[in-house]
Amino acid sequence: MQLPSSEEIVDDLAFFDDWEQRYQYIIDLGKAIPGLAENERTPDRLVKGCQSSVWLVSRIENGLVSFDVDSDAVIVQGLLALVLAAYNNKTPKQILDFDIEGYFQALDLERHITPTRGNGLRAIVAKIQELARRSIN
């Protein structure tokens, strides 16, 4: 299954009446991500700053950056899907230009996740933006 776009996710989440339904939608998005094979879950791919384990693999093909991600926590896998919807298969410039703060505000996400999860989400975003900056230079 291909993930919906970031705009579609914002629209989809607005459809739900309560956060329990929204959490389930986010978890379902995470289940659509294939994850990584055990041998790809290496220490050098761990994202620092996350409470749960999060692995990130990036590559550039034809000028587009794509990511494979995995987590040992179901809700974090869903949060990774939200990030992938914003950043996957984009140019480094598109990644750096994307208004991630506006996206998270539109999702009304940070009021509904723990501060620790919020910090982890920011660590993932920072890592992706760092990879995009390095690929431009």
From TrEMBL:
Fe-S metabolism associated domain spans which residues? 11-130
**PANTHER family in the record, alphabetically?**
SUFE-LIKE PROTEIN 2, CHLOROPLASTIC, SULFUR ACCEPTOR PROTEIN CSDE
Family to which this protein belongs: Belongs to the SufE family.
| Listed name of the protein | SufE family protein
Q: Name one Pfam family in it.
A: SufE
Which residue ranges traverse the bilayer? none
